[in-house]
Amino acid sequence: MKAIIISLIALCGLSTEVFGEVYQADIEQGQALATAQCESCHGNAVIAMAKQFPNLKGQKFAYLNKQLVDFKAGLRLDSLMQAQVSALSSEQLQDVALFYSQQVTPNLSAN
């Protein structure tokens, strides 16, 4: 039940209201987290060679945030992703989702 509630909250958009506080996702924090934790698998060079790592750039915020929340809650299973998001807060998940949603989709077929 808790996982369902978290997923529903994640679908609400760029801000999540919890206990009367509104969190606005921070693109700079998202970039820092993405660079430190995500880029090694989801960077342009890797995803062009290793198709099992999806391109996250340009995906919708709500979709990305829901997937991250689902990995963290155990609703979507992948041991590598669950390990990556396990220590991140819901705000940090939103930051990463915002960062990737604002990126331009790369042309991976050019290589």
How would you describe this protein?
- With 111 residues, this protein is mostly helical.
- 57% of the residues lie in helices and 7% in strands.
- The chain is built from 6 helices and 2 strands; from the N terminus they run αββααααα.
- Strands 1-2 form a two-stranded antiparallel sheet.
- Helix 1 packs antiparallel against helix 4 and helix 2 (27-42) crosses helix 6 (90-101).
- It comes from Shewanella scandinavica.
- Residues 25-104 form the Cytochrome c domain.
- This is C-type cytochrome.
Distance between the termini: 45 Å
Helix residue percentage: 55-70%
* Radius of gyration (Å): 14 Å
Shape: globular
Mean pLDDT: 85
Mind sketching the topology for me?
Layout: H1 2-10, E1 15-18, E2 21-24, H2 27-42, H3 44-49, H4 61-73, H5 79-85, H6 90-101
Antiparallel strand pairs: 1-2
In short:
The protein has 111 residues and is mainly α. Helices cover 57% and strands 7% of the residues. β1 (15-18) and β2 form a beta hairpin.
Features:
111 residues; mainly alpha; globular; C-type cytochrome; 7% strand; 2 strands; 6 helices
